[in-house]
């Protein structure tokens, strides 16, 4: 990808990166999303999360756009209470023991409902968190305030809904691409992201196939062969030499 230029490069394709990339793409920018992981396990920690979402609301009606199949009969049996801005801020502050940044918390809380609506536009599907959070009280199904809906299929569902949306909207996604530094121009402005790519070393100047000169480059789908490792060894030696030549800060104090 050397020489290719983008308006926005997002590093990391979990929920934060995917949504940042989608928001940037909405501004008609050319966007590249990088992740160090292989495609098969894409989605970072988000992939393993429960998919519960908090946002402010004043009644069940606010959730109707996220739950288009909810019938009036089902709705009549539910008690979701309300979840105000003050409730959400209090919860963030309690859970962080008042360490959360107030300004960022206010942005998070103020934008929470609009964000869930926006995610719905990004093709995220929602379900009621009935099995995980609701309690039956008489004829009513009572939900704790703020914990009413989750992404269908949890975090795995979230990433597997956002990746296709990103692809369909023309975001370029590069897997197994670990960003290891920023490229800064002479004026000190960030001009790019440095990504280590083994392929030009393994197959200089040509398309990388599974073998070079009859030697297999891969041991299996996830690991390169001993032969490929030996090809990369001089590169690793250079990196190790440069690291050992770098002075350790406060070495005398250690
Ligand atoms: C078991 C579990 C359950 C959870 N349940 C919930 C829940 O129900 N609701 C909720 O709101 N939160 C939940 N969370 C928390 C939630 O998962 C995280 O807050 C959220 O996933 C963070 O998203 P992220 O995009 O910042 O990070 P991640 O999803 O971790 O994404 C970071 C990505 O960056 C990539 N990356 C890192 N360094 C580089 C690099 N140098 N170059 C390229 N790529 C890089 C990683 O490979 C990864 O894909 C849960 C967490 C866990 C572990």
Describe the structure.
This protein is α/β, with parallel strands linked by helices and 254 residues long. Among the domains are: 102 residues, no CATH class; 50 residues, no CATH class. Helices cover 35% and strands 17% of the residues. It has nine helices and 13 strands. Strand 10 and strand 11 form a beta hairpin. Helix 1 runs parallel beside helix 7 and helix 3 crosses helix 4. The longest helix has 20 residues. The radius of gyration is 24 Å and the shape is elongated. Bound molecules: flavin-adenine dinucleotide. The site of flavin-adenine dinucleotide has 21 residues, from helix 1. Flavin-adenine dinucleotide binds next to helix 1.
Quick structural summary:
The protein contains nine helices and 13 strands. It has helices at residues 15-26, 72-76, 85-95, 102-110, 112-121, 130-133, 154-168, 199-202, 226-245; strands at residues 8-11, 31-34, 52-53, 78-79, 126-128, 135-137, 140-142, 149-151, 172-174, 179-184, 190-195, 211-212, 215-216.
Gross morphology: elongated
Termini gap:
41 Å
Spatial strand order of the main sheet = 1-2-9
Tally of helical runs: 9
Whole-angstrom Rg: 24 Å
Average of per-residue pLDDT values: 89
| Cofactors and ligands | flavin-adenine dinucleotide
How are the SSEs ordered, and which strands pair?
Blueprint: E1 8-11, H1 15-26, E2 31-34, E3 52-53, H2 72-76, E4 78-79, H3 85-95, H4 102-110, H5 112-121, E5 126-128, H6 130-133, E6 135-137, E7 140-142, E8 149-151, H7 154-168, E9 172-174, E10 179-184, E11 190-195, H8 199-202, E12 211-212, E13 215-216, H9 226-245
Parallel strand pairs: 1-2, 2-9, 4-7
Antiparallel strand pairs: 3-8, 5-8, 6-7, 10-11, 12-13
Helix pairs in contact: 1-7, 3-4
Bound molecules: flavin-adenine dinucleotide (FAD).
